[in-house]
Fold this sequence. Notes:
Elements: H1 3-8, E1 18-22, E2 29-33, H2 40-62, H3 70-96
Antiparallel strand pairs: 1-2
Amino acid sequence: xxxxxxxxxxxxxxxxxxxxxxxxxxxxxxxxxxxxxxxxxxxxxxxxxxxxxxxxxxxxxxxxxxxxxxxxxxxxxxxxxxxxxxxxxxxxxxxxx
Length: 97
């Protein structure tokens, strides 16, 4: 792919990537959404940062130093849901490109 072709192929986040369930579980309500139009490199950098915040907590749990429970478990769940929503929005953005 030439530099000119790369410039024309701009992949951004798509709208509709919802995350963080709220309310009645049967209704599957979501509170947050990924903002559409974020360039892929910026979005991937944010995903990397989100995933990076989980490393220490997971390492400590894996080594048996700190059990993964309570707030730490919820922190990982929310962080992973956020990162997944960004990746899902990028995949949808690729499909639209």
